Amino acid sequence: MTETQQQNSKPEQKEVKKKKKSWWRIARWFLIPILLVLALAGGMVAGYVVLGKQDIGSIWQWSTWKHVYDLVFAP
Question: Where is this region: Disordered (predicted)?
Fold first, then answer.
């Protein structure tokens, strides 16, 4: 292979790597928030249902979390 052929083949490889890198960057913007929301939901279930021994249906009621907020931030 001559020098010209080697130089011509290198930019093509870099373009492919850039494309993969940009796809991963975009995936992280969506994947990380989704994983954080799933971790929050899992923590709510573990804390409220497993440790608190309460009904799983009451996790999604607004009055439950208002009560928890009042307990934590009571004067």
Answer: 1-20
